[in-house]
Amino acid sequence: MLEIRQVTRRFGQNTAVRDVELEIEQGQMVGIIGRSGAGKSTLLRMINRLIDPSEGSISFQGKEVSALKGAELRRWQRDCAMIFQQFNLVPRLDVLTNVLLGRLNHRSTVLNLMNMFTREERIRAIAALERLDIAQTALQRAGTLSGGQQQRVAIARALMQEPKVILADEPIASLDPLNAKVVMDSLADINAREGITVITNLHTLDTARAYCNRIIGMAKGAVVFDGPPEALTSEA
Ligand code: ADP
Ligand code: ADP
After folding, report:
1. What is the distance in A from the centroid of ligand 2 to the CA of 74?
2. Are 74 and 146 in contact (CB under 8 A)?
3. CB 105: neighbour CB atoms within 10 A?
4. Of 192, 212, 214, 223, which sees the most CB atoms within 10 A?
5. Is 23 helix (H, G, I), strand (E, B) or coil?
6. What does each C-alpha distance from 210 to 4, 51, 99, 198, 236 come to in angstroms?
C-alpha cells in the first residue's frame, strides 16, 4: 500500500504539487486526470523517486520511500516500473534487448556492464513480448516499430521488472485511438490478472472512466476529486 502524506513539490517559485494526501491500495487501477501543468507527472515522478518532494512523505508498505538508498532504492525503482508517453526505448537496440533492459535494476553494475543476460531471462523476455502479442518483433530495432508497438514493448519491459506498481505517464497521449485501446486494454489486463497496481496519468476523462476503478482529478497541483468513476459529475 502506497501512502502519500502532505506532499508538496516546488520548482523555484512554482508549486507543481500542493499538499497531496492519498492512499492507494494494492491492485487498484487509478487514473489521474487534469490539465497540462496540473502536477500529474511530478506526482508520478516523486513516487518512484525520479525527484523528491519538497515537503511531506511517501511510503510503500510502511517504508519511507525518500529514505531508501543503494540496493533498497534500486529495489523500489524495480518494484515501481515507469511507462512514458514517448516510450523511452533505445531505438537502435532490438526489441528483445530493450525488454531485457527491464532487468538491469536487479543487477550489480558490473553485471550490467558485462551486458549478460541469462537464458532464463531471455525466455522471460520472450514470454513478456508474447503476453503483449508482439513477440514477432523481437529481433527488430525498436525504433522501426509503430508507436503502439513501441508502447507494448515498454509494457513488456516493465513486466520484466516484476513490478508491484506500474506508473504510466500519459501512456496513450501519442497514440491513435486504435493503438490507445490496445495499450489501455493491456494495462487493464495486467492489473486484473496479476494484481499489479496501475497508476496512470491520462488526459481524457473518457479513458479514465472506461478503465479505472478510481479517478483522481488534479488542478493547479492539488487533488480536486478522488473517487470511483460513478461519482464523477461533469467537472474536471
Ligand atoms: P502535468 O503532468 O499535469 O502536465 P507537470 O507535473 O508536468 O504537470 O507540471 C506541473 C508544473 O510543474 C508545471 O507548471 C511545470 O511547468 C512545472 N514543472 C514540472 N517539472 C519541472 C521541472 N523539472 N522544473 C521546473 N518546473 C517544472
Ligand atoms: P508533461 O507532458 O507532463 O506536461 P512537460 O512537457 O511539462 O511534461 O515536461 C517535460 C519535461 O520538462 C519534464 O522533464 C519536466 O520535468 C520538464 N519541465 C516541465 N516544465 C518545466 C519548467 N518550467 N522548467 C524546467 N523544466 C520543466
Report:
1. 24
2. no
3. 18
4. 212
5. strand
6. 25, 30, 28, 14, 16
